[in-house]
């Protein structure tokens, strides 16, 4: 089968055929949330300790649950990663990324904190972003108690979690209270204006299609997406001045609905003087690494962004080797 007939990476062609073409709507969302809660508990490696903690939420809002993943074999203060799950701003919970976060903790020897932020449409912007900010403030405030190096805290996320990561980087820059050292953007959901595009080949999108994108952005913004104006920090790609943000790594596939908006954002970061390492995976669709966990292309992709985290959190290789989990 040639590339023209099948645009997907050879490792992903079977998965692409099997993924149902589902558009998220309110009734579909209810079913998806129910199924997410039925996800069986993850079996963690003995080397990782997992705990749930409730931390102070935004002013006037409930506490925020965070899920922490700590390597048992690391001694002394460690770097940390605040991780934000995906789900189109309307779906998901930290448990869906249990294995990924445990791998980060074990492989890098770091504390990982995953945020259970409130979801749209019940809780539109700014509630999800403010929950993430509250969790990050807590992490910085508790560095001594948690055994974390405050100058080595990164933020990261996938899909809508990547969009919230980019928005969080902008918000922390503007408020000036806490300063993450790095932002990890895994096929991030950055620009509501993509919902208005009519020039895209919609037949190649798997995992997240244009209809779901409209629903996700409409739910998060509380209005029709793609309009002339949006609130500050609501849509990361709408921000005009990207200077002064933390260095970034961004990865996306060529068959991902977010491909164009992601590369445009990466170019703008670089133009603003923000280092941004970009990985483009030929023939990869949205969420391919979660759907095809065992594929070679997934292992390579995850290896790249894990290495990017290692470089950001352990800038001296000697420190990295000393702090890595056994």
Automatic annotation (TrEMBL):
InterPro entries in the record: AB_hydrolase_3, AB_hydrolase_fold, GDXG_lipolytic_enzyme
Superkingdom as given in the UniProt entry: Bacteria
Gene3D superfamilies for the chain: alpha/beta hydrolase (3.40.50.1820)
SUPFAM superfamilies the UniProt entry points to: alpha/beta-Hydrolases
Pfam family, one: Abhydrolase_3
UniProtKB keywords: Hydrolase
Residues annotated as domain Alpha/beta hydrolase fold-3: 81-288
GO molecular function annotations of the record: hydrolase activity
Segments crossing the lipid bilayer: none
Official protein name in the record: Acetyl esterase/lipase
Species this chain originates from: Archangium gephyra
